[in-house]
């Protein structure tokens, strides 16, 4: 399973691609930053980021695109551009029929470092260790995109069957999850009896 | 000149199209709301809004797409979706080589009502009057998209030659504006001598 993680940004948008096998062994595929020129007009910057993300998606053909969830209370100067870049990543995935997952930065840090408030260098070191890299991922700020992909790969097995994440599944996945949920509840009732 | 105004939103995205002749007489062309289903996942909602906006742009072939400028301090529950919808409108325009203008809601109200804090019903009435409509524009919340287009059509003649809006021009327009600016400055020097 190929997972493409996105750390959204209008000036620098991190992209990290990993492969997860059936036993959740992870391997590194690609890391890069898609950039736009802050001197360009906003519409052309959005076009650049969209084109760069689309190119990555078409090249790596991921099974899931995992995008860092943006919050309104973030830095007021950059939050709108960050939200727009996240929107473009979701759009590009949806246009290619690829399911989108959203994980918070805290979830991603927790997944790679066991600490949701881990510092940047810790995240870089643990991403390198998990993916068996001989050095820290470069460019450094793209480590978050790899962490985002790792977070999705290592999510708890049951995480897809309920709660908020369910809304990001494809129709087939949702039907499957819903059937699994029904099976689980009736099993629960049986046990209760 | 055809201007397509966008009042961005993830659930309801207003689109208003007007035509402005050389003497700035304005006429009504089209008004509509592009919708997405709040029960859908966010990526599919963004795809719906993007497809709807792209359809309008390809049908009406506007000379400019005028998008309401979004601010980070707006309603926290909706601001990210609003910013993403605005981003999609800018993307769709840029993909078709159409210049994008951004005007604040205050500028739009000022342009149609002479009061930047005009109430919704005033905006609806004045939009109807300016465009010679026999009734208020329907759906009512699309009046803001028409106001956004009117605001762009009625902007001061010099507004394109300097300041913030210049960044939203195409390369050719920017070169022209810059040449005009140089001509203007040298004229100013001549007068001073």
Description of the molecule:
Two copies of one chain form a homodimer. Chain A is α/β, with parallel strands linked by helices. Chain A folds into two domains: 2-155, Nucleotidyltransferase, domain 5 (2-Layer Sandwich); 160-193. Helices cover 46% and strands 18% of the residues of chain A. Chain A is built from six helices and five strands. Chain A has a five-stranded mixed β-sheet, with helices on both faces. Residues 160-170 and 179-193 of chain A have low confidence and may be disordered. At the A-B interface, helix 1 and helix 2 of A face helix 1 and helix 2 of B. Chains A, B: Its cofactor is Mg(2+).
Number of domains of chain A: 2
Q: Report low-confidence residues of chain A grouped into runs of 5 or more.
A: 160-170, 179-193
How would you name the oligomeric state of the polypeptide chains in this document? homodimer
Biggest interface reads: A-B, 31 and 30 residues
Task: Write the element-wise H/E pattern of chain A from the N-terminal end onward.
Answer: EEEHEHEHHHH
Enzyme class (chains A, B): hydrolase
GO cellular component, one term (chains A, B): cytoplasm
Binding site for Mg(2+) 2 (chains A, B): 68
EC number (chains A, B): 3.1.21.10
